[in-house]
Amino acid sequence: MPRIGPEYRDPRIDYSRWSAQKLFLERVSELVPETLDSLRQDVLPAFRRAAEATRPSPRPPTHVGPFGDPSVRRASPIPWRTWAQITIDVYAKQPEMSALRDRLSTWSSHWNLTDDWALDSAIRTLRSMEAKSRRRASVDIDGELVLLPPWVVAGARIVPFTFERRGWIPQKQQWIAYQAETREEFEHQLKKYRDDWASWLEASGPWRPGLKRSPEKRTRGGDDAFRHSDWLVRFQVQGWTHERIAKEYDRAYDDAVRKTNTVADAIRETAKLIGLTRRSSL
Asked: 125 to each of 43, 82, 133, 140, 197, how far by Cα in Å?
């Protein structure tokens, strides 16, 4: 059965809030794709200029390319990824960063997504757009607002998984036999990697995290969470009134929404859960 969030939970992270925020942003992207369109058109150019102004010098080649070209250079990472980071004093007097802050502020005010975590999501989405544009001529906007996983923000120990075994010798062995042996050995090493990680994660003591596995996901209540996120998007981003939402969704569901107060209560509670500052009612 699938689990809520990652395999293990870090006690520093509020997974319930993050999951609700992620769902809300997914519904924003689905119901109001103009948010992504305006981010691309109005903010991405300023983001590119700010990135180039603050990006360190390109890193030297780390390996020779597939055609022996040693001139391939990796672009240095952008040294900021959150709203808080781009508002620090070191960037205060840089015109490119000031322009980016202004553009982001205008975008977030227009869509009523003014909280820091929503602005962080916008920056993360811009980073994704920029990365895509480096790989091809156009930016695909048929995506969604990206929310940085909290376990990345909080920091995590990462141990790479590697697999290697002897190569195939066609003169000694049939391919089907080599393939079966390789898959069996891969599965064995992958299981050992997972078991070693689990032992370390679940152990308590000095320098051991003592984490717990995430609870299994239950389907009960899932429809309500999905619906309430939609209501919040309609209210917050599109400016619908409680009355209009109740009327529209009364036709959309068999268990009709009969009271405007039901919508208002759900919007208030969902906004509180995800840490969203609600706009004033129209």
From this structure: 11, 11, 12, 12, 31
Inter-residue contact 233 to 32 (CB < 8 Å): yes
pTM: predicted TM-score of the whole model, two decimal places: 0.68
Q: Rounded to whole angstroms, what are the CA distances from 106 to 116, 118, 157?
A: 14, 13, 37
How many CA atoms lie within 13 Å of 154's alpha carbon, on the beta-carbon side? 13
- Give the list of residues 6+ apart from residue 48 with CB closer than 8 angstroms, or none: 130
**Looking at the chain, how many residues does it have?**
282
Burial letters for 38-72: b for 16+ Cβ neighbours within 10 Å, e otherwise?
bbbeebbebbbebbeebeeeeeeeeeeeeeeeeee
Q: Whole-angstrom Cα distance, residue 63 to residue 43?
A: 34
Query: For residue range 194-224, what is the model confidence (pLDDT) as tens digits?
Result: 998 888 777 766 555 667 776 554 444 457 8
- For 3, 20, 125, 218, the CA distances from 215, given in Å and listed in that order, are 6, 16, 29, 9
Q: How many CA atoms lie within 13 A of 110 on its CB side?
A: 14
CA distance 261 to 269: 12
For the stretch 118-152, pLDDT in tens is: 999 999 999 988 888 776 655 454 567 877 666 55
Domain boundaries, the chain: 9-58+74-154, 160-216, 222-274
